[in-house]
Amino acid sequence: MVENEITYLSVPVPDDGAVIWGKGFDIDKVGRLPWLAGAELALTR
Fold first, then answer.
1. Beta strands in 1-45 (DSSP E)
2. Are residues 16 and 35 in contact, defined by beta-carbon separation less than 8 angstroms?
3. Residue 19 in contact with residue 42, Cβ under 8 Å?
4. Which Pfam families does UniProt cross-reference here (predicted)?
């Protein structure tokens, strides 16, 4: 999950994963998605 558009457009997407653009404060809404509740997360900087 990334916050800004430039990062979203340039981040490598894992073969078995997804990248979600949180769009700033809208990122709070993503945390309430039921299908995301059990997802494994990989944290990178």
1. none
2. no
3. no
4. JetD_C
